[in-house]
Amino acid sequence: MTSPALTMLSQEERMFRDSVLDFARARVAPLVSKMDEAGAMEKSLIPSLFEMGLMGVEVPEEHGGAGASFFSAILAVEGLAVVDPSVSVLVDVQNTLVANALLRWCSDAQKAKYLPKLTGEWVGSYALSEPASGSDAFALQCRAEKRGDKWVLNGRKLWITNANESTLFIVFANVDPSKGYKGITAFLVERGFEGFSVGKKEDKLGIRASSTCELVLEDCAWCRGERARRGGQGLPHRDRDPQRGAHRDRRQMLGLAGARSTTAMKYMLERKQFGQTLASFRGMQFQYARPWRSSRAAHGLQRRAPEGRGAALLEGGRDGGLHAHRRSPSAWPRSAWSSRRRRLHPRSTPRRSSTATPRSARSTRAPRTCSSRPSRSCCSPVREALSVRPLRARAGG
Q1: What is the pLDDT of residue 228?
Q2: Per-residue model confidence as pLDDT tens digits over 179-209
Q3: Above 70 in pLDDT, residue 251?
Q4: Which of 54, 117, 213, 325 is such that its CA lies 20 to 30 A from the CA of 86?
Q5: Residue 126's pLDDT is what?
Q6: Which position has the higher pLDDT, 135 or 376?
Q7: Contacts 24+ apart (CB under 8 A), 98-101
Q8: Beta strand spans in 8-142 (E)
Q9: Which of left, alpha, beta for 198 (phi over 0: left; psi -120 to 50: alpha)?
């Protein structure tokens, strides 16, 4: 059976994407302007996201989730971003950071306690960033001190997404500063814990309905047994989980870009100047086509990234998504890619012999092109997979 092209969705994936789009257009679209002006998420919308199963896409069915793949999760992120990136952010943090971290690093008892709540009613947050620890996540100032049978957390976290809506927070703190990054540990902190509070909400220029707040921990008493991993093992959380977040961030922007392209084309077909629509002018066509082509190329490449190189990196080689056999060329070993290049682009001329070629023969030899000797610049895996070719000007217009 022939598998679909790399840039095409399977029937199951199309059905899932279409259901998310229908939900977004019917339930989210009427609230977008209101939420953006208020700078807050509509509370009545969050239960609908749980009912649709969008808050636990990768969570196994025994814990109340859909039991689907990471690729399905980012399809949901992209579909929601077409209508409102704020709702998309809420869903993607819940799936690709919070639920994923619990699935990877928590004990069976912790999974049984928290995952059913995360798929049914609780929103979660991933509390990593601090005033002096943004990109340099190893420079955490938040401290966790052992006092008897409890841990006590002190510090501040900034720019925490979903903080206003969240009940569960994965908080990173350093249990032993002398060990550097090896002292970093993740703690599961509930909103009702003593000494924990949600601080100021940031007033943002865009994606306003998504809450971004400060967290304050002042002698936050935390019981034994609620660490997401034993002390000194927090680094894998920091290293691997945000890499999944990078995939969903790209999909969110691609979903938004696709929606803006559709809106722009609709306007170009309606607006008239000099007796014809804007879409009839060649200059406008070029302005529309160039970003659209780049967007589609990025869309096709990113669509298969989680199942190719991304799957090996993010899932440890255990889960390649709904179609693990469909790998992007960028994920192939170098030797496999080289042999495939030779098979697709055989030399049209024999290899040069060891004897010198006369100058007269060299002067009449045809210049080498892509068909005679492929190079990475013209036969890259990206262009091979997406069939993207540069536009070339024709002689005579």
Answers
A1: 60
A2: 877 888 899 999 989 899 999 999 999 999 9
A3: yes
A4: 117
A5: 93
A6: 135
A7: 98/124, 98/125, 98/126, 98/168, 98/170, 99/55, 99/56, 99/58, 99/59, 99/65, 99/124, 100/58, 100/70, 100/241, 100/244, 101/126, 101/170, 101/186, 101/228, 101/237, 101/241
A8: 123-127
A9: beta
The CA distance from 7 to 385, in Å, is: 8
Give the DSSP H or E segment for 213. strand 212-223
* Cβ atoms of 379 and 370 closer than 8 Å: yes
Mean pLDDT of 365-389: 44
The C-alpha atoms of residue 374 and residue 376 are separated, in whole angstroms, by 7
Tokens representing residue 119 in the block: 């798929």
Q: Buried b / exposed e across 55-89, counting CB within 10 Å, b at 16+?
A: bbbbbeeebbbbebbbbbbbbbbbbbbbbbbbbbb
Query: β-pairing, 150-161 with 166-174?
Result: unpaired
The Cα 20–Cα 13 span in angstroms is 11
Q: CA-to-CA distance for 277 and 211, rounded, in angstroms?
A: 41
3-state class of 23 per DSSP? Answer: helix
Q: What angle do CA 57, 21, 325 make, to 5 degrees?
A: 50
How many helical (H) and strand (E) elements, i.e. helices and strands, does the chain have? 13, 9
Q: Which tokens hold the place of 128?
A: 């990593």
Looking from the CA of 197 toward its CB, the CA atoms found within 13 Å total 6
Cβ atoms of residues 38 and 98 within 8 Å: no
Given the DSSP bridges, would you call strands 150-161 and 212-223 parallel, antiparallel or unpaired?
antiparallel
Give DSSP secondary structure letters for 367-384: PP-TTTS--TTTS-HHHH
Strand partners, 227: 187
Cα–Cα dist 67/60, whole Å: 4
Q: Quick check: 28 and 66 in contact, CB under 8 A?
A: no
pLDDT digit string (tens) for 90-143? 998 999 889 988 998 888 999 999 999 999 999 999 999 998 877 776 788 899
Report the interhelical angle of 235-270 vs 85-92 (nearest 10°). 160
Closest C-alpha to 83, from 45, 55, 56, 57: 45
Using DSSP bridges, classify how beta strands 150-161 and 276-277 pair: parallel, antiparallel or unpaired. unpaired
Residues ≥6 apart with Cβ < 8 Å to 35: 41, 42, 84, 86, 208, 209
Maximum distance among all Cα pairs of the chain, rounded to whole angstroms: 89
